[in-house]
Design brief:
two-stranded parallel sheet; Rossmann fold; 8-stranded mixed sheet; elongated; 345 residues; alpha/beta
Length: 345
């Protein structure tokens, strides 16, 4: 079996949505029968480990008695003999595996005992960690912590590619620029950027820099259902998921990997462009809004058009049908107005 491709997911600051994006990407790869592993290197925030905690029905102990977590691995300097444990923990989450950052989701850690002291030590530790998994998987995704330190530098150094997840605001751009420039100084490994939670509706990825993989739009359904039992079912129909798929296919093409994932999503409008303009509405509200407007215009225009043959078919007086059409039109506009007012905040 060939060695796994290692993708390092980083960000200049916290809150960019890096961890959820990593999980969705892993699920996309897993759905295409690619054996995929995520390593949660963000041992203090531990977002992916928290997802695993809920997946295991809020079980505090996330690993078995003969396993160690990422935090334990760092504390013991990669020596399993020190811990007396047999292996590094992996747990199944949907279509991919996760190496949890800690053994208990509420575990308290001491930074000075945990983090590598130098870049060379961090590189050696991560290289040793990857050696234990590289022949078992097609892809290994590293969910690195936000910002820059020895471990982030090392994760970039040992990876085939790094992806910096950023937002459109000025602060995020500045922190991403700083991180990308620093990582380029550390290593020749390729690094790309991906704009997450985008509010832009008209910008095409053709206008983006060559190292930018695209825009992942803000999607109301992702925000509303995240953390609920319906999340992974609902996300399959979102612009968010299909945009991550497009970004991955773009990356795979740039690197010559030619390993693609499905970008398909069922859309009620036939075009993503319409929905991107309504990204602050849920899919259900988008449907009610658009079709409410269609009903409204159709109903109000009906009395102005001579289509008496419909009246004859319905065997109704001409005036009555037109009045009903006008009320139908007003109902359609009323429905759209209600959706807009409901989502105004």
């Amino acid at each position: 079996m060939s060695e796994a491709k290692i993708i390092n997911i980083v960000s200049g600051k916290g809150g960019t949505g890096k961890t959820l994006l990593t999980a969705v990407l892993a699920d996309l790869l897993g759905n295409e029968n690619n054996s995929t592993l995520i390593v949660d290197l963000d041992v203090f925030v531990r977002g992916l480990t928290s997802l695993l905690y809920y997946h295991k029905k809020e079980r505090l102990e996330l690993i078995e008695s003969d396993e160690i977590s990422i935090a334990d691995f760092f504390i013991d300097k990669g020596d399993l003999d020190i811990s007396g444990k047999a292996k590094i923990a992996t747990a199944r989450y949907r279509t991919f595996d996760v190496v949890p950052s800690v053994s208990r989701v509420d575990e308290i850690l001491t930074f000075t005992d945990l983090m590598p002291d130098t870049k060379s030590e961090a590189i050696n530790l991560l290289s040793l960690l990857m050696k234990k998994f590289k022949t078992q998987y097609d892809f290994i995704l590293l969910d690195s912590r936000a910002g820059y330190d020895e471990l982030v530098a090392a994760s970039h150094f040992i990876s085939d590619v790094s992806v910096c997840v950023e937002e459109e605001d000025s602060i995020s751009k500045i922190t991403s620029n700083n991180l990308v420039n620093q990582l380029k100084e550390d290593s020749d490994s390729p690094i790309f950027r991906l704009t997450n939670k985008s509010r832009s509706t008209g910008q095409s990825t053709d206008n983006l820099a060559v190292d930018n993989l695209g825009l992942v739009p803000f999607d109301m359904d992702v925000m509303k259902t995240f953390g609920t039992q319906y999340f992974w079912t609902d996300i399959t129909r979102t612009l968010y998921r299909s945009s991550i798929a497009k970004a991955w296919n773009n990356l795979s093409n740039k690197l010559g990997w030619n390993i693609t994932v499905s970008e398909f999503r069922a859309t009620p409008f036939g075009s993503d462009k319409v929905e991107k303009k309504l990204q602050f509405f849920s899919v259900k509200d988008r449907i009610l809004l658009v079709y409410g407007l269609i009903i409204g215009f159709t109903g109000l225009l009906y009395p102005l058009i001579d289509i008496s043959w419909i009246d004859n078919i319905l065997s109704q007086p001409d005036g009555m049908v037109r009045v009903l059409a006008m009320f139908t039109g007003l109902f359609g506009f009323g429905l759209s107005a209600w959706i807009i007012l409901k989502n105004k905040k």
